[in-house]
Each structure stands twice: as C-alpha cells, then as structure tokens.
Design brief:
There is one protein chain. The protein is mainly alpha-helical. The protein has 18 helices and five strands. The protein has helices spanning 5-8, 47-53, 56-65, 71-83, 91-96, 104-115, 128-153, 167-176, 187-199, 207-216, 222-233, 241-254, 261-269, 290-305, 312-325, 328-332, 340-350, 357-378, and strands at residues 2-3, 13-14, 31-34, 39-42, 45-46. A three-stranded antiparallel sheet has the order 3-4-5. A two-stranded antiparallel sheet has the order 1-2. Strand 3 (31-34) and strand 4 (39-42) form a beta hairpin. Helix 4 (71-83) packs across helix 7. The protein is globular and about 75 Å long. The protein binds acetyl coenzyme *A. Acetyl coenzyme *A (ACO) binds next to loops. Acetyl coenzyme *A (ACO) binds at residues 237-238, 241, 268, 276-283, 333, 335, 338-340.
Length: 406
C-alpha cells in the first residue's frame, strides 16, 4: 500500500499491484476457480459435469442467465441463436480487404469490431433487451466469421451457415465443406469440438475478460468490447499457448521423440535456457487443471475415432506428462498440465490449422466475455475502470531553451 501524499501531496492511499496478483476489480457470480483444489465451476456447476452432460449452447445459456435451461428454454434459445448465424452480405468485403496470409486473429479483431456498424438497432447498453440481442448475435456469428477467415485464407468460397445443424456441426461444415464435397458430420468429432468450446467458455477475470470489462466500463458497445478481448487473447502468454505446446511436442518428436524427453526436461530445469514446458503451469491452478483431464480424455476419443490410437504426439505428450509429474522441479513448484497441453493435438486431429487455434478459443470465450460484460453493465456499483499508477519519472522542472538542452 502506497501513501500517495508522499508522492503528490494528494490525499488517500492506493495499492501497487503489477499483474493484479491480489486485486479484485469486480464482484462476479459467473465462474469460480479453486486453484489449490483444481476446481472450476460455472454458476456453481463443476466443469466435469457440464462437459459430460451439456452441450455448448446449454452452457452459453447457463453463463448468460445463471441457470441451466429446461427443454423448452433450450429449444427457444437454440432457435434464436441459429436464426442469427448469418452475417450481413457486406461483411464479405471486409474479408476481401485483407491479404490472404493475414493472421485470422487480425481478421477477427477487425470484423468483430465492424459488426457494430450493422446493428444500430441494439446498441443501447442500458436496455437489457438490446444487451441480450447483441450477446446472441455475437455467440451466433463468431463461428461464421472464424470459418470465413479460414476459407478466405485457403482461397475457397465462403460457406453459409446451415440452420438444421448443431452449433458445432454447423461450424465444422462451414470450415470443411466446399462446393465439390459436402462435409460428413462425424458425431465424435463434433462432440469433441463442443467440449473444447465448453472448457474454454469462461475463466473469470483472465486478461482478455478484464480487457472486455475495462473497455465496456467506458460505455463502449459490446462488439467493440469483444474485439478488444480478441486482441488481448491473441498474445502468446494467453490464447497462444496451445499452439506453443503443439510446436514443442513436434520439435521433441523431430529430435527423436520419447527418448529425448529426459534431455528436454533437463533443459527446462536449467534456468539459463529460458525453455519452458509449454502447456504446464498456471497462475491460479496449483493442482491439476480440471480442463486438462477432460481434454486428455477427448484427445483419446478423437484419435481412436480417426484410427490414430498410435499417434506419436499423443504418446509423447502422455510420456512427458508422466515424467514431469514425478520430477521434483515440477512437484515443488506445483506445475501441472493446463488445458493447452492436449488441446493442440485435439484441434490438429479435427483438421483445424494451427493458425486458427486462438480463433477457436475466441469463439468459445465470446460467451464468457459477453456474460461478464453484461454482469458489469447491470451492476449498480459499476464505474469506469481507471487504474492508478506509481509515478517514477521526473519531478516538476522548467523547459530549457534549445541552446541549453544536452
Ligand atoms: N515450465 C518450467 N518452469 C515453469 C513453468 C513451465 N511451464 N511454469 C512455471 N515455471 C516455474 C517458473 O520458472 C518459476 O520458477 P522459480 O520459482 O524457480 O523462479 C515457478 O515455476 C513459478 O512460475 P511463475 O512464472 O512465477 O508462475 P506464473 O503464475 O507467473 O506463470 C504461466 C504462469 C505463465 C502459465 C507459466 O506457468 C507458464 O509460462 N507456463 C507455460 C505457458 C502456458 O502453458 N500457458 C498457458 C496458461 S493456461 C491459459 O492461458 C489458457
């Protein structure tokens, strides 16, 4: 705690807490994490139960409304989301303005922000109905935009959404069908994608969610706020870790696979090497990340379905996990696999290119971002976010004439 009178002659105190290691910025009743126990609850429900018993849209309903839908509510919600999956035809011109090799995250930051220009009918953030319509639009249109970003990058025509398919099946079809070949829906693969979406749907006040809240605190429209969240998620320390974990496994594999794990672990333990075991460790979880267990199971199911049970990367990942969990370095520091350790292998097996991994994360997290944004706007105590600083620059001085400057 800093006494700011010593700094400015002003009154009051504030805390200096870089990285917000111990500062709560809001009240929230959406997601609860117990990092020591390795527990993650959405609205009180354990992630393990949601991942097995619910689909992604039920999870969205839960995060947005606080309760799971009954059959009638689910039908109505799915119908509403499905009706909003199309994007305005003008949107294709935004895509066409990008280079073909543009990173999908830059395309998403631009196109999601641009959505606000099409929906002037729902931008009154003080109207709960407007907020709900915007939330539905974002959840419904993100898969369409992510798939369009992919299709554009590979030079194929955009695929329009199909209303008779589930949320995840529709996305897989928009990604993988083309005018010459219709995508055959595979229930195991669709369920795996749905599970990835559920596991990434919310994670309380992480960097991108805090970004959405801060942007929203000024009254910015929800599309602009979600675009800000996507920009933050793009960073390698946040949404980019699954790509890094996959690349790490591929590198070890190239160098000889399982037999080289010992050497790799030794490098990780050598502090001068600056090498980390990607997909391991977490700021909050000091126990097994519950999402990682589910992701490992899903990985197993997907590889079996595709006849890839002998996938060398999966075997390597399991061997690496086993060795690390028995090693004192990882035990003492409470470093366990996080959700990203296995999710890259699953996404690759689904046919999703590495450059789109973070886009899939954005698609999943949109519901968490918008639920948190809505919670903030509805909070009567909500204020514009305005962190203080610990000023360490010059004290007051006079501007010297040019000839006197050093
Ligand atoms: N490999 C090797 N050592 C590690 C790792 C790792 N993956 N993670 C942490 N450590 C070590 C640190 O070097 C430090 O050691 P020291 O005490 O000897 O200095 C100790 O463990 C504590 O780590 P911190 O960096 O202080 O932990 P922090 O909470 O700041 O970092 C983070 C958490 C960023 C996730 C870190 O564990 C990491 O970089 N992991 C690899 C990247 C990754 O997988 N990120 C995904 C996070 S999940 C998500 O975003 C969805």
């Amino acid at each position: 705690v800093i006494d700011i009178r010593k700094l400015y002659g002003a009154t009051g105190k504030f805390t200096y807490d870089p990285g917000f290691m111990s500062t709560a910025a809001c009240n929230s009743s959406i997601t609860y994490i117990d990092g020591d126990k390795g527990e993650l609850l959405y609205r009180g429900y354990p992630i393990e139960q949601l991942a097995v018993n619910c689909d992604f849209l039920e999870t969205c309903y839960l995060l947005m409304n606080g309760e799971l839908p009954n059959a009638e509510q689910k039908k109505a919600f799915v119908g509403t989301v499905t009706n909003h999956t199309m994007v305005h035809e003008q949107m294709q011109f935004f895509f066409r303005g990008f280079r073909r090799d543009a990173h999908p995250m830059s395309v998403l930051v631009g196109t999601v922000g641009a959505l606000s220009s099409f929906y002037h009918d729902s931008l009154d953030i003080n109207d709960p109905h407007h907020r709900e319509v915007s939330a539905i639009r974002l959840i419904a249109k993100l898969p369409t935009l992510v798939a369009m970003a992919y299709k554009y990058s590979i030079g194929q025509p955009f695929a329009y959404p199909r209303n008779d398919l589930s949320y995840s099946a529709n996305f897989m079809r928009m990604m993988f069908s083309n005018p010459c070949e219709e995508y055959k829906v595979n229930d195991v693969l669709v369920r795996a994608l749905d599970r990835i979406l559920i596991l990434h749907a919310d994670h309380e006040q992480n960097a991108s969610t805090s970004t959405v809240r801060l942007a929203g605190s000024s009254g910015a429209n929800p599309f602009a706020c979600i675009a800000a969240g996507i920009a933050c998620l793009w960073g390698p320390a946040h949404g980019g870790a699954n790509e890094a974990a996959l690349t790490m496994l591929q590198d070890i594999q190239k160098q000889g696979g399982v037999e080289r794990i010992g050497e790799f672990i030794a490098k990780v333990k050598d502090k001068d090497s600056n090498v980390k075991l990607m997909g391991f460790g977490h700021r909050v979880y000091k126990n097994y990340d519950p999402r990682a267990k589910l992701m490992r199971e899903t990985c197993h199911e997907v590889l079996n379905e595709l006849g890839l049970h002998d996938d060398p990367l999966f075997k390597l990942a399991m061997a690496l996990e086993k060795i690390a969990l028995e090693d004192d370095y990882f035990v003492q520091r409470k470093l366990y696999p996080n959700v990203d350790f296995y999710s890259g292998i699953v996404q690759s097996a689904l046919g999703i290119p590495v450059s789109l991994f973070t886009g899939i994360f954005a698609m999943a997290r949109t519901v968490g971002w918008i639920a948190q944004w809505n919670e903030m706007i509805s909070d009567p105590e909500q204020k514009i976010g305005r962190p203080r600083q610990l000023f360490v620059g010059s004290t007051r001085r006079d501007v010297p004439a040019m000839a006197q400057r050093g």
